Amino acid sequence: MTTSIRCLIVDDEPLAREAIRSCIALDPLLEVAGEAAGGNGAVQLIERLRPDLLFLDIQMPEVDGFEVLQELVARDIKLPLTVFVTAYDTYALRAFEAHALDYLLKPIREERFKDAVSVARARIESDRSRRTTDDLVSLLARL
User: Fold this and answer.
1) Cβ of 132: how many Cβ atoms within 10 Å?
2) Per-residue DSSP letters for 77-111?
3) Termini Cα distance of the chain
4) Phi, psi dihedral angles at 24 (to 5 degrees)
5) What is the mean pLDDT of each run of 10 residues along the chain (143 residues)?
6) Which pTM value belongs to this model?
7) How would you label 29-53 residue by residue, b for 16+ Cβ within 10 Å and e otherwise?
8) What pLDDT, on a 0 to 100 scale, did the predictor assign at position 8?
9) What is the pLDDT of residue 34?
């Protein structure tokens, strides 16, 4: 049985958040766990909600997307799989250096969104399966 993938949307533009929310709504296995309009709020939400998948804008006032990830690392918070969503292709290399899963350009094309989610789903299911196996091995070792 496949469990839903909890997503967090972080973008300072309300229309961009709505576009991502609309794409998420097309997939019954995705759920919006929360939204943030900026980087400051994103760090607290990620820490509290522990989303599986993060849709993160790069250029935001005060705290940009890269700074969000840096702050999470500094606080020793597990990074969710991250898909950068931006209007600028100039940040692609830096995004992948920051271990982004994918990089979507605005306006988001539905097919590209589905491709990014497909890769995320495979990675999340693999991680969940590995954790289940590890938990089972640990339980058997204690018995």
Assistant:
1) 10
2) PPPPEEEEEES-GGGHHHHHHTT-SEEEESSPPHH
3) 27
4) -60, -40
5) 88 97 97 96 96 97 96 96 95 91 96 97 85 60 74
6) 0.88
7) ebebbbbbbbbbebbebbeeeebbb
8) 98
9) 98
